[in-house]
Specification:
Strand 3 and strand 4 form a beta hairpin. By secondary structure, this protein is an alpha/beta fold. Helix content is about 35%, strand content about 25%. Bound molecules: adenosine-5'-diphosphate and zinc ion (ZN) (2 copies). One zinc ion (ZN) binds next to loops.
Length: about 725
């Protein structure tokens, strides 16, 4: 017999199956990991098919060396998913397979944890011992009784209850035996009481919709605190009762110890957690529990969508709008689409949950492509915190040039006097810089695309990164006639200094990329903050979601406008989500919360709707804008990304591809809305030059056009240039 094997080498030239001979008696199955000879080396590979014929000359076929695991580690469904992902995202097979199994397993560096266990031998030896036992052997008899009652136990546990000498004696008499056994490592979480909760009517209705959505997607739209998590948990419980398994995804950044212990409290050992914060050994063992059916619920970030579970009864994606669900480095894939594939395969529902659904998802729910379940009010009937806007334009007119307005400073003072806590949120700017009028906050935008123009220092020009149109740098603000412009924004550190000057005696915690470079620093800062009253936490996007601080009564958003200045058509949507999410950090428990939003254009519709927590209103405005400007979901954006250390080679590839794309455009004239080759906004990442071809097409023929683009890319591959194709990417930088 022969086996088709995918070898574990991430190289396009060997991205196909290779045939090997299966030695007689080797109990090989599809999905097994094996060791095979490859060239002059021995390489790991994965068996994708077992067959009896091949086109390859018999003398050239080599033998499989060995099987690496006791059982297959890739299940049948995953091979279907492999084909789907290779076709849909144009990925290498091996890159997809690597998503399916933990890297700890592949490298073989993490060993199974073996411990000594104790078990009883056959009944004859026991009877013999019991019949002949004397009075002094009370311990021995108790051990036998204990093992009869409880079954196998770890030696380390048993020796805590009984003297080791007695255990050893029983072993030497053949009554029990001591042997090595694999023990699965388990991550530790704070133990927590689970509270039984009766669902309210809205939650029950949502449950009904979910139960009837086998094989389809339900958008669960509910404000923060409306009880979405309870609905997820009850739905998971239902799936388990039906004898099925479940997957629950949460954005990495919200996967806090708090969230994890809630799941542990409700579902105990049925939960396996797949999280980058675990040790390598824990991660491997949690994954194996799922593979072996010892755990039934996978909880984790994006990659947990590949949990090795079969018979799935439910998939949940919490905070479905979060951009982290779209992988933007190789292998690029869309988690929601993968979830939908698995839901169809297993005929189970997918729940997409959010307080601010992505425009694309809400559009689908309105169109009937998704089912819609709504939780309109908070469980505790508390109002959302009030959002006050501060007009920074007026602040500047009053002579306030700092980052913290006097209004926000006053609120901070009040908060501290009441012995509460405050969070000051700073928007992360990304890599690009914009030109902004210091006085009124005006930022020039492209007349064709409506996106903010990026300032290029080297040629002192403004450029649209979407269409590459160039503009002269302006010296006079068309809005307020001021000549005072600034480039870039203030960093976290600068703002911490400013706050420290205002409140020299108050503890201030800072959380951004610089302060959280080590693994646990992030949790450390947050737990210190949680224990300090009064105090102020200053941070970037990292503090926006998930965390629950009962004593936070004030949230300040220093520079809300920045997310509006992105070169991306999702800028409005992101800003709305951000304001809603950050506001959700205030007033979560007994203390009333309030939010101060600083902006140069507080009347801008995004802020107006966000301040009223009016998602529907915002959605209607935004979807109308997308329609008139021809952006997704009404069109599809495709980006072909080129990167290489060799600038010339990269440019050559871009040109070659671009000329072929233009030919394609001639063929599909009606469908092409836009097509241009430009340098990426981030021109270089880690010594690699980056270019992109941006294409916008109508939806009707998109499948055909994308297939053509894949072919173009394949045919013009240069070894020194990596090329990737993305559809509706979350990130155009
Ligand atoms: P969300 O996920 O929408 O933000 P949660 O599910 O976390 O909301 O619920 C918010 C709070 O309300 C939690 O403390 C939760 O335990 C509680 N809760 C949820 N549903 C109910 C209910 N039906 N009755 C009482 N308390 C509930
Ligand atoms: Zn101005
Ligand atoms: Zn433009």
């Amino acid at each position: 017999m022969l086996a088709s094997v995918i070898v574990d080498i991430p190289n396009s030239e060997v991205d196909r199956v290779f045939d090997y001979n299966i030695p007689i008696q080797m109990p090989l199955l599809v999905g097994h990991r094996v060791l095979v000879p490859f060239g002059s080396k021995k390489i790991e590979g994965f068996v994708v098919e077992i067959k009896d014929k091949t086109d390859i000359e018999e003398s050239k076929i080599k033998d499989i060396i060995s099987i690496l695991d006791d059982e297959p580690i890739i299940k049948k469904e995953m091979f279907n998913l492999l084909d789907y992902m290779v076709g849909r995202y144009h990925l290498r097979k091996i890159d997809v397979i690597r998503l399916f199994i933990p890297s700890q397993l592949r490298s073989g560096k993490v060993k199974k944890l073996l411990k000594f266990a104790v078990g009883l031998n056959d009944s004859n030896a026991i009877k013999n011992f019991v019949d002949n036992a004397n009075k002094r052997q009370k311990n021995h008899l108790q051990i036998i009784e204990y093992l009869q009652k409880n079954g196998e136990i770890l030696l380390s546990e048993l020796s805590k209850i009984f003297p080791i000498s007695a255990i050893k004696k029983l072993e030497s008499d053949g009554v029990l035996c001591i042997y090595q056994k694999q023990v699965k490592r388990s991550p530790n979480f704070a133990k927590k009481e689970d509270k039984k909760i009766e669902l309210n009517n809205a939650q029950k209705q949502a449950m009904d919709i979910i139960q009837n959505a086998q094989g389809s997607t339900v958008l669960l739209y509910g404000v923060t605190g409306s009880g979405k998590t309870e609905v997820y948990m009850h739905s998971i419980e239902q799936a388990i009762k039906n004898g099925k398994n479940a997957i629950m995804l949460v954005p990495e950044i919200s996967l806090t110890p708090q969230v994890l212990s809630n799941f542990k409290a409700r579902f105990g050992d049925m939960v396996a957690i797949l999280h980058s914060g675990l040790s390598a050994g824990e991660r491997l063992d949690e994954w194996e529990k799922l593979l072996h059916g010892e755990a039934k619920i996978a909880v984790g970030a994006r990659s947990a969508i590949f949990a090795p579970l079969d018979n799935i009864g439910l998939i949940v994606i919490d905070e479905e709008h979060d951009s982290s669900y779209t992988s933007d480095s190789n292998p690029r894939y869309n988690t929601i689409e993968v979830a939908q594939f698995r839901s169809k395969y297993n005929n189970c529902p997918v729940i997409l949950g959010s307080a601010t659904p992505s425009i694309e998802s809400y559009f689908k729910a309105k169109n009937g492509e998704y089912r819609l379940a709504t939780l309109p009010t908070r469980v505790n009937k508390k109002n959302m915190p009030e959002i006050h806007s501060v007009n920074m334009y007026e602040a500047v007119l009053q002579g306030e040039y700092g980052a913290i307005s006097s209004h926000l400073a006053g609120k901070l003072d009040e908060c501290i006097k009441n012995n509460n806590q405050a969070i000051i949120f700073i928007n992360r700017r990304g890599f690009v810089s914009f030109l902004t009028c210091k006085k009124c906050g005006y930022t020039p935008t492209c007349t064709d695309c409506e996106v903010s123009l990026v300032y290029h220092k080297e040629d002192n020009q403004l450029k649209c990164h979407f269409c590459d149109k160039r503009y002269h740098v302006i010296n006079v603000c068309p809005n307020c006639k001021s000549r005072d412009f600034r480039v870039g924004a203030m960093g976290t550190q600068k703002i911490v200094e400013e706050i420290r000057n205002l409140f020299p005696d108050v503890p201030i915690f800072r959380m951004d990329n610089d302060t959280t470079s080590t693994k646990d620093s992030h949790i450390e800062i947050l737990s210190k903050f949680a224990q300090t009253k009064p105090s102020i936490l200053v941070g970037t996007q990292m503090i926006a979601k998930g965390h629950d601080f009962p004593n936070v009564s004030l949230v300040g958003i220093v520079d809300a406008d920045i997310s509006l200045h992105q070169t991306d058509f999702r800028a409005n949507e992101r800003t709305f989500q951000l304001v809603t999410q950050v506001a959700g950090r205030a007033g979560r428990a007994d203390v009333e919360g309030e939010v101060v939003l600083q902006s140069y254009k507080p009347k801008y519709y995004v802020y107006r709707y966000a301040s009223n927590y009016d998602y529907e209103g915002f959605y209607e405005r935004e979807i109308a804008l997308r329609k008139t400007t021809n952006f997704p979901p009404f069109t599809t954006i495709i980006r072909i990304l080129f990167s290489s250390e060799d600038k010339e080679k990269a440019l050559q590839s871009v040109q070659e591809c671009y000329s072929k794309v233009l030919e394609l455009k001639d063929r599909y004239m009606q469908d092409f809305n836009f097509c241009k080759a430009v340098a990426c906004p981030v021109k270089r990442i880690k010594t690699k030059y980056r270019y992109q071809i941006l294409i916008k097409i109508k939806n009707e023929n998109k499948e055909k056009i994308i297939k053509n683009i894949y072919t173009i890319v394949d045919n013009s591959r240069d070894k020194k240039v990596s090329v990737f194709v993305e559809t509706n990417p979350q990130n155009l930088s």
